[in-house]
């Protein structure tokens, strides 16, 4: 059941033992164009990371493939030694061959190299949340899961998450490891993974939407614009607020390379939607996706 303004909870516990604020930060956009190479404004990228912590954000999502490597390196440069409550979730399972190119490689030998690199770049002995970026269609999923299981037993990983997976794949993974999070594309007008969101809610897993600011449908966008005017907010802020109301296990990781946009995104966590406006967005999004 969706949260209402009266029951809105600002925090969530990953794996029942790591509590994070549900408004996090996604560190993909602090790299160069095409998520390739260094950012155009390195100083601003550092300021974004430092400001996120100042605002009270204590969950940062990144990946070895962002840059590649650049995002993780900047996080360590900006924030190490880390605040005690900061949780950094990173990912492995993709290669980078150029701007906007993301070949999949979740073979154990590559994941071993990726995990070791992430630990080194982030200056950590253990990753709090290590997420499989994609299932590799060229090898049995079980081989990837066996690697993650082994890395967790070696205490290199505390918790394990998955990305772009369906319910059946989550259930298979659960035979090998405890899955604490799923990161799939989702927004108020892109409900492809609705069943996966509900499965996560029912099974105490975090659901982390990527591309959370809308699927670009014009009819849905008009409703979003109308609601945003009532709250003196931006459409992006309302889209993020709707997600926080949608389900108590949703963690948000909107990304940006600008401090101003970071602060705007963060303010979405303070917007309490009325039942009427929540349902208007909920219905138009559902209708849009079905159509």
TrEMBL record:
The keyword Oxidoreductase applies. SUPFAM superfamilies: NAD(P)-linked oxidoreductase (SSF51430). GO terms for molecular function: oxidoreductase activity. Pfam families: Aldo_ket_red (PF00248). Residues 22-284 form the NADP-dependent oxidoreductase domain. Transmembrane segments: none annotated. One of its GO terms (cellular component) is cytoplasm. Keywords: Oxidoreductase. This is Oxidoreductase. It comes from Rufibacter hautae.
């Amino acid at each position: 059941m969706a949260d209402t303004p009266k029951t809105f909870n600002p925090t969530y516990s990953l794996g029942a033992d790591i509590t994070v604020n549900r408004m996090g930060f996604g560190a993909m956009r602090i790299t160069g164009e095409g998520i390739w190479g260094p950012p155009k404004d390195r100083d601003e990228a550092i300021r974004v990371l430092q400001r996120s912590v100042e605002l009270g954000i204590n969950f940062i999502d990144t990946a070895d493939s962002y840059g590649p490597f650049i995002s993780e390196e900047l996080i360590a440069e900006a924030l190490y030694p880390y605040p005690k409550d900061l949780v950094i979730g990173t990912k492995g399972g993709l290669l980078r061959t150029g701007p906007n190119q993301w070949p999949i490689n979740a073979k154990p030998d590559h994941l071993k190299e990726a995990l070791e690199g992430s630990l080194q770049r982030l200056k950590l002995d253990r990753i709090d949340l290590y997420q499989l970026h994609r299932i590799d269609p060229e090898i049995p999923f079980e081989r990837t899961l066996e690697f993650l299981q082994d890395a967790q037993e070696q205490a290199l990983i505390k918790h394990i998450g998955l990305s772009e997976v369906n319910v059946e794949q989550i259930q298979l993974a659960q035979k090998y490891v405890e899955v604490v999070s799923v990161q799939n594309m989702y927004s108020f007008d892109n409900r492809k993974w609705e069943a996966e969101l509900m499965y996560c809610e029912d099974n105490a897993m975090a659901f982390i939407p990527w591309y959370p600011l809308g699927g670009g449908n014009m009819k849905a966008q008009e409703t979003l614009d109308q609601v945003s005017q009532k709250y003196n907010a931006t459409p992006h802020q309302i889209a993020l607020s709707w997600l926080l109301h949608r389900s108590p296990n949703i963690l948000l990781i909107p990304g940006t390379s600008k401090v101003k946009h970071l602060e705007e995104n963060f303010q979405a966590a303070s917007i309490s939607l009325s039942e009427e406006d929540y349902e208007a967005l909920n219905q138009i999004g559902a209708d849009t996706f079905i159509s």
